[in-house]
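Morning!

This is the sequence you dropped in the shared folder:
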Amino acid sequence: MDPWSRLEVPTAFRRVLHVQFKEPWPESVERSADYGEIDPVMADADVYGWAVASLRGRLTDVDRLQLSALADQVERAIPVFPQHGRPYFDRLLGLARAAVEFRLNM
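The structure's back. Tokens below.
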């Protein structure tokens, strides 16, 4: 069951969050290694946390700026990841961009 289905969330944002949450960590990406400017484990956790905050309408303007900067770092790091791991981080980038743009209509 999609945990965000009860919210009035754009389908694309909800789908990206759901898929990213369900996807296993890519085996070819070392958890203890840095790729480009990012620690992939921290980037994954930060994007997911900010995406959840965005869905709940709790992402501040400062959070949006920080998340946007992290998304830029993820985008620059994607070519550094092993080929097999890139789709995971492409989706993470999509989730970050969607979270920055999303505004909860209250």
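Headline: The radius of gyration is 14 Å.

More detail when I'm at my desk.
O.
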